[in-house]
Write a structure and sequence with these properties.
With 385 residues, the protein is α/β, with parallel strands linked by helices. Helix content is 31%, strand content 22%. The protein is elongated and about 90 Å long. The structure holds nicotinamide-adenine-dinucleotide and 3-phosphoglyceric acid. Pathway: Amino-acid biosynthesis; L-serine biosynthesis; L-serine from 3-phospho-D-glycerate: step 1/3.
Length: 385
Amino acid sequence: MYQVKTFNAIANKGLKTFTTDYTINQEDAPDAYLIRSVNLLKAQFPTTLKVIARAGAGVNNIPLKEATDNGIAVFNTPGSNANAVKELVISMMIATSRKVFAAYDYSHKNIHADISKQVEYDKAKFNGTELFGKNLLVVGLGNVGSLVANEAVNLGMNVRGYDPFLSADSAWKINNRVQRLTSLYQALKDADYVTIHVPKNKDTIGLISTKEIQAMKKGVILFNYARGGIVDNQAVVENLGKIQFYCTDFGDDIIADNEKVITTPHIGGSTLEAEDNGAIKAANTIMNFLENGDTVNSVNLPGMKLPFNAPYRFTIMHKNVPNMVGQITTFLAQAHVNINNMANAAKGETAYTIIDADNLNYKEQLINQIQAIPEVRRVRLIDHR
Ligand SMILES: NC(=O)c1ccc[n+]([C@@H]2O[C@H](COP(=O)([O-])OP(=O)(O)OC[C@H]3O[C@@H](n4cnc5c(N)ncnc54)[C@H](O)[C@@H]3O)[C@@H](O)[C@H]2O)c1
Ligand SMILES: O=C(O)[C@H](O)COP(=O)(O)O
């Protein structure tokens, strides 16, 4: 039996994906955490914990170094809620351009019998603009950004994208009418709308700050449905003369109570469909990792998936340094274990080795020997018989 501990509300469809080999929140020696945005940055991880699956995109709530040092594989579910965010961003682009929030306020405050005549005088206050023909800059063209860019092309916008780290997978998804720019400042200067879709990390905190806002055109509408802190809110409030509206999913005291700032309470991925998608993908990720050692979509290990056609599989998470495979296979050879298949790959400072074996001798001793190699973070033996 494997134990899963959940944090946050996890969609039922995801929880039901687990087979009967899994218990959810019943005991207290978890093999897996299934989480959303819970802040684990100061968490102490139990030694039983082998995998953290984040149903969703952002992993800035997980201490990746500590997890890696403790031999814990971390995953997310890329793209599972991207459509939900895309629809929210596009709706906010339309809502702000058409002054829907001010118009709603007006209507709400003026509910009386002869309003129908009055509106014909007052409606000029709510004249808007259309998206068609306007310039949109999308910063970050991954799962969310690529969908936003493509949808905006469909709406007749001139779409430009800035993403110096664009993956080949994302590039394939992007409409060829999206123009790729290589300088953020060049990209900012004539955009009517700027939307940010990058991960939050040490390089993207404050990505949009005073200098970037100064490079923008007057009347720009700015969107941050990525993470708080990527856009510097202080710089935003100081430049609300220039910025027509700032729409964000990440409110704070600095931007509170300003009619040019429209905040939503981190609802970008909060649709039934996205929550089901993420939870189902995260549950499958946990099962594939625990039962087969698959690391596809891991954020701290290289993505690997090896056909499992042998009775035994060793999965070893270790530092990416010379002679690891040599040391491990020497122990296997000394125990007269025959290797059927193997793979090794690295991601940054961490590597992962999968070894399938036809037979097994001296099980405890072998595992202890491999685990005792100082650079080994965790060794697991999966018995497939
Ligand atoms: N509001 C929400 O509820 C919600 C939902 C989903 C995702 N998100 C957030 O949205 C962001 C994007 O998510 P995603 O799923 O598209 O991620 P993703 O990893 O698929 O895409 C991110 C893209 O940003 C690019 N990038 C990284 N650094 C950059 C930089 N300095 N400048 C320009 N581009 C850069 C990457 O190359 C990548 O293409 C993340 O911060 C995620 O946490 C928020
Ligand atoms: O990164 C994400 O996937 C989003 O921010 C959604 O977060 P949530 O799962 O807490 O709604």
